[in-house]
């Protein structure tokens, strides 16, 4: 498997605090079946002033530590990039990395308030030849009121990354519900851990893959953690990769405090129907 959202580099943001924690997390990933990870520290002006040059230097240093510790984990570059003014110029100027140097950009919106002109900003990145991969929309506090925005973006070519732990229930019933809905309605392209530490936010991807298998079948589960992530690393265009599937109508996510609805929504399409 390939994990493309991972705060693994030690001491560079709010992820792994030190080398020992980073090595523990790396070993956990290997034991979980992950072969490649993108090191994606935050880039957030005023809080995390990381740059591509600094991230590449930190990756190279950690590669040496992994080799010394005999941990067979491949590292590629990336960043958890916050949506701020001037971001496109930073990408063009080489200060902000994309995933593995590809056209795919890991883009993090504000957690608590819908960013002004969010939809327009995403389309501007796409017009510049990038494929924004919007991180953890299922955990955003404003998803209830703006789910249609993510649906429109997905249909226009933006990608969505759902958090493995959210799908597994580690972030509560609300995030689990929205995770299942994004997957079941065909608006999730990849799963990733967004791991920050070994305990509270661990790098566990296989459990989410197994849930996706029950919802979407073996083939789509593999696309979520292998095929599409590898396509990103190889910088393949989105239309060269398999599109997401609708889910199994027998799988009914249940809204927190409410009744299930997704099975009724998907029933007319049948299991595995393509968008």
What does the model show?
- By secondary structure, this protein is of the alpha/beta class.
- Helices cover 40% and strands 12% of the residues.
- The strands form two sheets. A six-stranded parallel beta sheet has the order 3-5-6-7-8-9. Strands 1-2-4 form a three-stranded parallel beta sheet.
- Strand 7, helix 5 and strand 8 form a beta-alpha-beta unit.
- Helix 8 packs across helix 9.
- The protein is globular.
- The two termini are 25 Å apart.
- The C terminus is likely disordered.
| Architecture (CATH level 2) name | Alpha-Beta Barrel
Secondary-structure-based class equals alpha/beta
Low-confidence stretches: 257-275
**Topology as H/E string?**
EHEEHEEHEHEHEHHEHHH
Total of domains: 1
What is the count of β-strands? 9
Strand content: 5-15%
- The helix count comes to 10
What is the CATH superfamily?
Metal-dependent hydrolases
Tertiary shape: globular
Helix content: 25-40%
Characterize this entry briefly:
With 275 residues, the protein is α/β, with parallel strands linked by helices.
Features:
six-stranded parallel sheet; single chain; globular; 275 residues; 10 helices; disordered C terminus; 12% strand; three-stranded parallel sheet; TIM Barrel; alpha/beta
Write the topology of this structure.
Elements: E1 2-3, H1 19-32, E2 36-39, E3 42-43, H2 52-68, E4 74-77, E5 80-82, H3 87-92, E6 104-108, H4 118-127, E7 131-135, H5 143-156, E8 159-163, H6 164-167, H7 173-184, E9 190-192, H8 206-216, H9 218-233, H10 262-266
Parallel strand pairs: 1-2, 2-4, 3-5, 5-6, 6-7, 7-8, 8-9
Helix pairs in contact: 8-9
């Amino acid at each position: 498997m390939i994990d493309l959202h991972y705060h693994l580099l030690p001491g560079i943001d709010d992820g792994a605090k030190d080398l020992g924690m980073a090595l523990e997390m790396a070993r956990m990933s290997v034991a979980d079946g992950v072969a490649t990870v993108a090191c994606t520290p935050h880039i957030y002006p005023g809080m995390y002033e990381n740059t591509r040059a600094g991230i590449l230097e930190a990756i190279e240093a950690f590669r040496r530590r992994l080799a010394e510790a005999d941990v067979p984990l491949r590292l590629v570059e990336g960043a958890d990039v916050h949506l701020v003014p001037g971001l496109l110029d930073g990408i063009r100027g080489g200060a902000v990395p994309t995933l593995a140097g590809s056209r795919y950009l890991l883009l993090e919106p504000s957690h608590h308030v819908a960013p002004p002109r969010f939809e327009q900003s995403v389309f501007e990145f796409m017009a510049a030849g990038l494929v924004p991969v919007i991180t953890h929309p299922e955990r955003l506090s404003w998803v209830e009121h703006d789910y249609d925005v993510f649906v429109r973006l997905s249909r226009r070519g933006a990608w969505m990354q759902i958090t493995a732990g959210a799908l597994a229930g580690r972030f509560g019933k609300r995030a689990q519900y929205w995770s299942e809905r994004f997957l079941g309605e065909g608006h999730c392209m990849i799963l990733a851990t967004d791991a920050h530490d070994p305990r509270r936010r661990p790098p566990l991807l296989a459990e989410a893959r197994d849930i996706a298998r029950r919802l979407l079948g073996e083939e789509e589960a593999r696309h979520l953690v292998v095929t599409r992530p590898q396509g990103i690393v190889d910088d393949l265009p989105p239309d060269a990769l398999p599109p997401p599937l609708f889910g199994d109508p027998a799988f009914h996510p249940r809204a927190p405090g409410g009744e299930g609805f997704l099975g009724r929504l998907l029933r007319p399409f049948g299991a595995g129907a393509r968008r």
